[in-house]
Amino acid sequence: MQFSRGLMVALAAMALAVGVAFGAEDGKGQAAAGKVVAVTDASRTIVVESTLGGQPWIIGAEVTDQTKFGGKAAGLKDVKAGDQVTIQWVREEHRLAAQSITVR
Predict the structure, then answer these.
(1) Domains and their CATH numbers in the chain
(2) Hey, which end of the chain has fewer CB within 10 Å, N or C?
(3) What are the pLDDT tens digits along the chain (104 aa)?
(4) Close Cβ partners of 5 (under 8 Å, ≥ 6 residues apart)
């Protein structure tokens, strides 16, 4: 499926809102494995489709200067829609911040 830029930005914003609503308590990290559905360079956001309790779950997290990249990726520019990743994030006051992203 091919996304337009506007749709990717809207999807990233919605995923951040959902992620903040359903993410871990502030300061506590969580992790998930899934498929990247959008990467938005302008807002430094990655959106990953995963599952939670057997149900589809969308995680949107902001990539910060402290985000570590493992596996094949060297940075956000090296992650693209369709990649299978493991993402670890922490919930901050108004966002989910990616702690690490590993392309599998």
Answers:
(1) 5-103 (2.40.50.320)
(2) N
(3) 455 666 555 555 555 555 444 444 556 689 999 999 999 999 999 999 999 889 999 999 999 989 999 877 778 888 999 999 999 999 998 999 999 999 98
(4) none
Report helix, strand or coil for 23.
coil
- In our burial notation (b when 16+ CB lie closer than 10 A, e otherwise), range 24-55 reads eeeeeebebebebbbbbeeebbbbbbbeeeee
Whole-angstrom distance, CA of residue 59 vs CA of residue 69: 17
For residues 45 and 63, is the Cβ–Cβ distance under 8 A?
A: yes
